[in-house]
Amino acid sequence: MQLKPINVVIVDDHPMVIEGLKTLLAGETTIHIKNYFTNGKDTLAFLEKDTCDIILLDVNLPDINGVEMVGMILNKRANIGILGLSTYSEPSIINQMIRNGVKGYLLKNATSNELVEAISQVHKGRFYFGSEIQKILADSVSQDTKDTPKLTRREKHILSLIAEGKTTNNIAEELFISPLTVETHRRNLMQKLEVSNAASLIKVAIEKKLI
Amino acid sequence: MQLKPINVVIVDDHPMVIEGLKTLLAGETTIHIKNYFTNGKDTLAFLEKDTCDIILLDVNLPDINGVEMVGMILNKRANIGILGLSTYSEPSIINQMIRNGVKGYLLKNATSNELVEAISQVHKGRFYFGSEIQKILADSVSQDTKDTPKLTRREKHILSLIAEGKTTNNIAEELFISPLTVETHRRNLMQKLEVSNAASLIKVAIEKKLI
DNA sequence: ATCAATATACCAGAAAACCAGTAGATAAAA
DNA sequence: TTTTATCTACTGGTTTTCTGGTATATTGAT
Question: Does ipTM surpass 0.90 in this model?
Fold first, then answer.
């Protein structure tokens, strides 16, 4: 019945992990490990000529940054499903990976069942994020928002106008208020977000999702 | 066998959509529509006292912004799975919703099958994003990166220092170069990203994932 | 009705950023 | 080797932002 097994490529600089994955997937007739690589360069070279269904991609490769790697792979072969792999789980990295197009994420202590489940889900075009990962993502969101100072409606509005590159005078004209008032709001914004200029104001505002 | 149907609450300001959803789900014995609301306030009031498994949440509510709504719901009841619903599909909104914690996203033209599939996947703790949504997300990523001007290594470095709130002089000291040189880089950065001040420089740099 | 929060407004000086134009040094690619 | 890109640096002037104060009108909530 399994005429077409799922072709998987493993990318991880740690040979032990590769062996582990091979063992975990050994019994699965639906999954075929087509190849494995220990760095980004070789993987990309492989993808020049050949392809696969799923790539298990370690986040910490020696040569190429994991996040960029995702983009590069999908640039070449948009229909490969990428499953991120890592030992730890830093929320910001996971977030970036997702934004760049990974279809799933696994910790390296995943069980055989999880692994198979993840691969088959992603192969079906779905996403797979285990419960630990979901928890981590949820925590990172609440953490972001917890120590966010409250901005007034007016402040939020002016903040977004600053982000658009408008000057104090521009904003004053647009809102029919005095430039001096805009200045005050500007100052209050910087004080609340604990920064000392507009550039970092925008950075932390975006980090804290105020824009 | 279905002792515990999945309890679903529908939130949409358009009664027609609510009716449509009720009809589409009518035959499903595994899914029970527990309640429905046409605005955010009522929904939150309901969640004060009662709960459910899944919320089908329209993005364009009359009173509360859809993105914020997600946060508010999860704040009260973290284990409710939220499925975003909308007619159109603006990538940035979908991205925001996901970051705030929706577990899935559906277009309002979804078929009955998709709907049931989405609800049951999310109820199992998985994500559900239909192929259209995945395509939209993928496009938005490639669109972001396609018209991104190339920054030199030095420029990227200085860009990130600007984002940290450092002044031209600070940066010059840190890099052991003339403030005048930093000024030049600064200008080139603004020119490349087509902005006229540091605030918007940071904004578009983050949008284009250069930071 | 009163209190707290918000939005408004001002002065004045210092610091930093922005604009326009130019140009030498170096390093990498054609 | 010539070209191209990058990094470096300058002059001089204008605009904007930042800092440290102060202060009144308006609004929302108790």
Answer: no
